[in-house]
Structure to design on (283 residues):
C-alpha cells in the first residue's frame, strides 16, 4: 500500500478537528439511542458494528484491496463495542468518555511497561495524576457513577487499547480495520441473537438510525479520515489531540442529551487529561 500523502497544515487541522468530533459523537449517539429510544444495548452494538463493517468493506473492495485483520483484533473490537453500549445505559456521556479514554491509555502504558519500555519521572507523575483523576471520578459519593457501569466502560477501554495494540504495524490499516469490523459484526450479531432468545431484544427506528450513524459515519468513515491525516501529524501531536475527545463528548452530552456537567466530572477531567498529557509529552 502506498504511503498516504502529507496534507497541508490547514487541511490537516480541519480533518483532525472533524475526526475528533466524530470520535466524541460516538458517545453522544450511544446515549441518545439508549436513553431517548427503545433500542436495547445488544441491538445497538450489532447495528453499529454491522453498519461500520459494510462501509469499510465496500470502501476496501472499491479500491481493489483485500480484507485483512485477525480474529484476535476482532474480539477486542467486539469487547469494546459491546461493553461501551451496555455501560452507556447508566453513564452520562462525559463520564463514560473519560473512563473509556483513561482505560485505553492505561492499557497502552501497561503494555509498554510489560514490553520493557522505560518511564521517566514526568511520565510516572502523569500516570499518577491520571489515576488520581479517575479515582476522584468513581469514588463513592452523591455524583459517583454506578460501579457496574463504570467497570463495563473500563472493560471497553481495555478492549479498545488491546485492539489498538493488535493493529500496530499494519501495512494497510483501512483494510485491517474493515476485516476486523467484518469479523466483529458476526460476534455482535450473535450477541443480538442471544438477547432475542432471552426476550431482551428491542428495535426502535430512531435508535437504529443513531446506531447506523455511529457505525457508518462516526466510526467507519471516522477511522478512514483518521488514517488519512495521521501521516501529517507528529506522534505526540496525534496522541495529544485525542485529549479533546472526552471534553467534546461531555459538551455534546450537555447540548444534545441535556446532561449536567458536575463539579466532580470537571475536576476529574482536568486531573486525568492533564496527567495523560504529561505521559504523552514525556515520551
Amino acid at each position: 500500500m502506498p504511503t498516504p500523502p502529507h496534507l497541508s497544515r490547514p487541511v490537516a487541522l480541519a480533518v483532525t478537528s472533524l475526526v475528533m468530533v466524530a470520535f466524541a459523537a460516538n458517545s453522544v449517539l450511544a446515549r441518545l439511542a439508549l436513553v431517548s429510544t427503545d433500542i436495547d444495548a445488544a441491538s445497538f452494538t450489532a447495528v453499529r458494528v454491522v453498519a461500520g463493517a459494510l462501509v469499510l468493506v465496500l470502501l476496501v473492495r472499491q479500491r481493489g484491496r483485500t480484507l485483512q485483520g485477525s480474529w484476535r483484533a476482532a474480539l477486542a473490537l467486539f469487547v469494546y463495542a459491546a461493553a461501551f453500549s451496555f455501560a452507556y445505559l447508566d453513564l452520562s456521556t462525559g463520564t463514560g468518555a473519560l473512563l473509556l479514554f483513561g482505560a485505553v491509555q492505561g492499557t497502552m502504558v501497561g503494555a509498554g511497561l510489560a514490553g520493557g519500555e522505560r518511564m521517566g519521572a514526568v511520565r510516572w507523575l502523569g500516570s499518577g495524576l491520571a489515576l488520581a483523576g479517575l479515582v476522584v471520578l468513581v469514588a463513592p459519593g452523591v455524583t459517583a457513577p454506578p460501579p457496574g457501569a463504570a467497570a463495563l466502560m473500563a472493560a471497553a477501554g481495555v478492549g479498545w487499547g488491546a485492539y489498538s495494540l493488535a493493529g500496530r504495524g499494519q501495512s494497510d490499516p483501512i483494510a485491517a480495520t474493515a476485516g476486523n469490523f467484518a469479523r466483529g459484526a458476526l460476534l455482535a450479531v450473535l450477541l443480538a441473537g442471544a438477547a432475542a432468545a432471552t426476550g431482551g431484544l428491542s428495535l426502535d427506528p430512531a435508535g437504529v438510525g443513531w446506531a447506523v450513524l455511529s457505525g457508518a459515519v462516526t466510526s467507519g468513515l471516522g477511522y478512514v479520515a483518521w488514517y488519512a491525516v495521521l501521516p501529517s501529524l507528529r506522534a505526540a501531536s496525534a496522541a495529544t489531540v485525542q485529549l479533546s475527545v472526552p471534553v467534546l463528548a461531555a459538551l455534546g452530552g450537555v447540548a444534545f442529551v441535556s446532561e449536567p456537567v458536575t463539579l466532580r466530572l470537571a475536576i476529574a477531567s482536568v486531573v486525568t487529561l492533564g496527567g495523560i498529557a504529561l505521559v504523552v509529552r514525556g515520551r
About this structure: The chain has a mean pLDDT of 89.
